[in-house]
Design brief:
By secondary structure, the protein is an alpha+beta fold. It contains five helices and eleven strands. The strands form four sheets. The protein has a four-stranded antiparallel beta sheet with strand order 2-10-7-8, with helices on one face. Strands 3-6-9 form a three-stranded antiparallel beta sheet, with no helix packed on it.
Length: 173
């Protein structure tokens, strides 16, 4: 297995499209360890928005990689496995280029070890408000195998996630 080192900017493209919520792009929440999900009562902050007709959010598509530049350390990072949506503009959104498997990249880019490696780019003076800017994030170096190997690794982790979800459902019943 041969792994090639590259900058994230070579495999990710920032998606910074701002638009109001719509039928095609409903307003959703981005939740640590869950990804893009329905807002629900806990994440509904619509009462804070004074102009619902003109409020713009960030568009995201299925397979996008998303992180909160202020909360990267606490796990506000993941993939959009929901589909077309708009989310809060505080998030950084990246499409994963075609030469990479998004399941593999999702596993790689949510690992604690990877997130720890990004902390050197934190900026700010108030604890909890440190930020990692997109331009710095895209400088990070990652090792990536061939697309075929990425797909095999991605499938493996996807099956593990499905097995865990299945076992959790059994335990609830």
């Amino acid at each position: 297995m041969t792994w090639e080192q590259c900058k994230l900017g070579e495999v990710l493209t920032e998606r910074n499209i701002k638009a109001p919520q719509s039928e095609e792009y409903p307003l959703m929440a981005f939740v640590a360890n869950k990804g893009v999900t329905e807002k629900g009562e806990r994440y509904d902050r619509s009462f804070l928005v004074t102009d619902n007709n003109n409020k713009k959010y960030k568009q995201t598509e299925y397979g996008d990689y998303i992180y909160s530049s202020n909360n990267l350390e606490t796990g506000s990072v993941g993939l959009n496995l929901y589909g077309k949506a708009v989310i809060s503009p505080v998030y950084s959104i990246f499409s994963i280029n075609n030469n990479c498997d998004f399941h593999f990249m999702g596993e790689l880019l949510t690992r604690k070890q990877f997130i720890k490696s990004l902390l050197k780019w934190r900026q700010g003076v108030v604890y909890g408000q440190w930020r990692i800017h997109e331009k710095d994030f895209l400088k990070a170096i990652v090792a990536i195998p061939s697309l075929q190997e990425q797909q095999q690794i991605g499938e493996f982790f996807q099956k593990q996630d499905q097995l865990i979800t299945f076992q959790q459902r059994l335990l609830k019943n």
